[in-house]
Amino acid sequence: MKKSLIALAVLAATSGAAMAQSYVTLYGVLDVGFGKVKDGKWGMNNGEGYSAGQDGFNSTSVIGFRGSEDLGGGLKANFNLQSGGLDLSSGAGASNGALAFTREAWVGLEGAGWGAIQLGRSSSIGAKVMGAYDFNGTSYSSAYDRAGISAVTWYGSSRRSSQLQYVTPNFGGFTMRAGFTAKGDQGGVQGVGVPDTAKNQYSLGATFANGPLSVSAVAETKAREGLRTAYAVGASYDLQVVKLAATYNRRESEGIDGYNTFTTNGGQLSGGKGWTLAAVAPFGPANVGVAYARNTDADIKALELFANYALSKRTRLYVDFVKGYDQNAVVAVPNGRAAASANPYAVGLGVVHTF
């Protein structure tokens, strides 16, 4: 009997250790609220005049699965599957109503001494490096994105398909990231043309974050002829009572003078170059912030105001507002884009829940 009990105890301990070394987690972000743009009407998420094709005003609503397996010797196998945007006003997917893992879909290896690699579709190097300097996230109200100079949305997306990514270990606050996409994978994937015009694409980013100071730089080579190497630099400093940030960004395409990013394509394809300033201040469970962006190439200015109130670690309320300035009331219609309205604005309020 004693031998049997000992054997069962050893088996239970071994099973528990194995389970502790491997895991799969269901996670998600849910954003639902009301919003509108100038001359439009209030609507829930995809309401009239709000943001066609946008799944949430402040955050992208997603559901995903991620996991890790300990392979021994300090080596791990990791994966992440994250859906495209979900519209909580209807329950549908971002485009055709189907649940597809269009935001994250990769498998990788990680070692304690050499860093980690990912193969598949994942966040771009630009998004991972420069996203921290957009204090309210790359929401619909992001002044950086509304001015067309967000490094997060180079090529109109924060994602890269068919990409090999590598990140170093953290060396006293310093990390580097690198990405590669073969030109044979560019056609129709990043929206940059067909393979015979495509190029091998390389990305490189670095961040030093230690204490209150953070400094970053990132560059991404052009994916086809006719574009240019995109790059961005940024810095932030936390004074406790307020956190400040500044960035400079040159996108992969030149800007169109007077083009209003509120009109079409989610405001992500205007191109250009310019600078941003931002500040956010904490007030207990709440924070309030402001961001200003100036696209000197396309003559676009944007001002963002935002506030968040944390009901818990997982649930918060938000109010976001963004306005554009010095935009032409009517511009030529380049590449099928709609004419711009004068001094547009957008406002949204809602709730975000994470799990």
Keywords:
355 residues; 16-stranded antiparallel beta barrel; 8% helix; globular; disordered N terminus
SSE arrangement:
Blueprint: H1 2-21, E1 22-37, E2 43-44, E3 62-72, E4 75-82, E5 86-87, E6 92-93, E7 104-111, E8 115-123, H2 125-130, H3 143-146, E9 159-167, E10 174-181, E11 201-210, E12 213-220, E13 230-238, E14 243-250, E15 273-283, E16 286-295, E17 300-310, E18 315-325, E19 345-354
Antiparallel strand pairs: 1-2, 1-3, 1-19, 3-4, 4-7, 5-6, 7-8, 8-9, 9-10, 10-11, 11-12, 12-13, 13-14, 14-15, 15-16, 16-17, 17-18, 18-19
How would you explain this protein's 3D organization?
- Mean pLDDT is 83; it is low at 1-18 and 328-338.
- The strands form two sheets. The protein has a 16-stranded antiparallel barrel with strand order 1-3-4-7-8-9-10-11-12-13-14-15-16-17-18-19.
- The chain starts with a helix and ends with a strand.
- The chain contains three helices and 19 strands.
- It has one domain (25-354): Beta Barrel (Porin).
- With 355 residues, the protein is mainly beta.
